[in-house]
Amino acid sequence: MQVVQEGLAECQAVLRIELDASELESYLDRAHRRLAARVRVPGFRKGKAPRVVLERAVGRESLLEEAMEFILPEATDIAVREQGLAMAGLPQVEVLEREPTILRATIPLPAEVTLGDYRDIRVVWEDVAVDESRVKDTLENIRRELAPWEPVDRPVQMEDLVVMDVNGTCEDREVLRQSDLGYIVSPDPMPVEGFGSNIEGMQAGETKTFTLSFADDYQDPELAGKPCEFTVHAKEIKVRALANLDDEFAKGVGQGYDSLAALKEDIEGRILENLQEEALQVYEEKVIEAVLDTTDIVMAPLLVEREVGRLVDELQGRVQEIVKRPMGVDEYVSLMGKTQEEIHQEMHPRAESRLRRGALLSKIGEKENLAVPDTKIDDEIGRMVNEAGPRGQDIRRHFSDPQHRQLIQRTLFTRMALDKLVLIAQGKEPDGVEAKDDVKGKD
């Protein structure tokens, strides 16, 4: 095999790989054995047809195509090792010629990270506090959720529960038919903008027909922007029977509280915990941005493009969950109202940002000599097993594989590096103190 490095720039190496005749023959023999097991040749049992006979039956191009499945990964791997390169991701391989076999492989290399004086960076932590109004709002929401519904003899008002039969038709297509539907009247656009306000004022036993149009960006493109005729028959109107906010009410919430004051204290504690978590996420972003401003990072364009592809796939998956059905790339692009190139361009900054953060934290971890002990990996797997419930043992088997354990190791390593940066930005690096607890001011 002849390997020539044609270029090395932007953390990418380009290799020209040429197989000699004997190497190609070896791959063709392997391709023959695998192809013979699948192709039936008259006069021979499966897997028993000689190579010359099989090649005559399927054609040399088919045999070469089969051989390429071995050649591309294996020849590239050998070439990378010969050149002493460290791959940061899967290579991109182009077949220049099939016979003789000549390949061009673009190898993404690890990012080049030049750190600035990150240990001199300081970011001010802003304490958070719970506004009393949030406690009151949460308490009122609990009160409403626990309130039973009682019939009322009056016209429908907002926030009432209406038991009704409803039918919706759009261009002779029935889009909604339900009997005894319990619908809480609100200005929210469910199932369509204006539905709740049309129900408001109806009496029990009344039937009403009205026409509303779906929004132009409605999740079902076949209904988007089109008018729909709804017929509603109101059967019963109910209103929440709200309890008094007192100690007796508190005893009926969750596992029960001794007093209303105890319930309020618990609510305030939960809100504060959420606020601290949100504040920590914001703080971590500020720290990372501050360190990135002093850091030079060069990344392989191939890695960025692949990250863009992953982000686009994630977005397409979320859209498919919304519309409750799979869709092809063309339909997805049409639904988004943009070209595939425009979608990729929009995702490019986000993809680059994600990779820059990962490269930075990896470099910080190396610089600070951080290491993830096996016990931490075992603890993390144990946590996931416990949270998985009945699927716990499947999770444990999955992460018994060394490659999957390495994924956890990388995640924990990144977390440790970020925690270290947070401590540095605070000007505090005590041994044995978790970054999150230190930032929040806990003992």
The CATH first-level class of the domain at 2-110 comes to Alpha Beta
Averaged pLDDT: 90
By secondary-structure content and strand pairing, the structural class works out as: alpha+beta
What's the CATH architecture of the domain at 2-110? 2-Layer Sandwich
Low-pLDDT sequence parts: 431-443
Question: What's the CATH topology name of the domain at 2-110?
Answer: Alpha-Beta Plaits
Rounded to an integer in angstroms, the radius of gyration calculated over CA atoms is 32 Å
Q: Tell me the number of strands.
A: 11
Number of helices: 14
β-strand percent reads: 15-25%
Sheet with the most strands, sense and barrel status: 5 strands, antiparallel
Distance between the termini: 63 Å
Written account of the structure:
The protein has 443 residues and is α+β, with helices and mostly antiparallel strands. The protein is 49% helix and 18% strand. Among the domains are: 2-110, Trigger factor ribosome-binding domain (Alpha-Beta Plaits, 2-Layer Sandwich); 148-240, Chitinase A, domain 3 (Roll), CATH 3.10.50.40; 299-349. The chain has 14 helices and 11 strands. The strands form 3 sheets. Strands 6, 7, 8, 9 and 10 form a 5-stranded antiparallel β-sheet that branches. The protein has a 4-stranded antiparallel β-sheet with strand order 1-2-4-3. A two-stranded antiparallel sheet has the order 5-11. It is extended. Mean pLDDT is 90; it is low at 431-443.
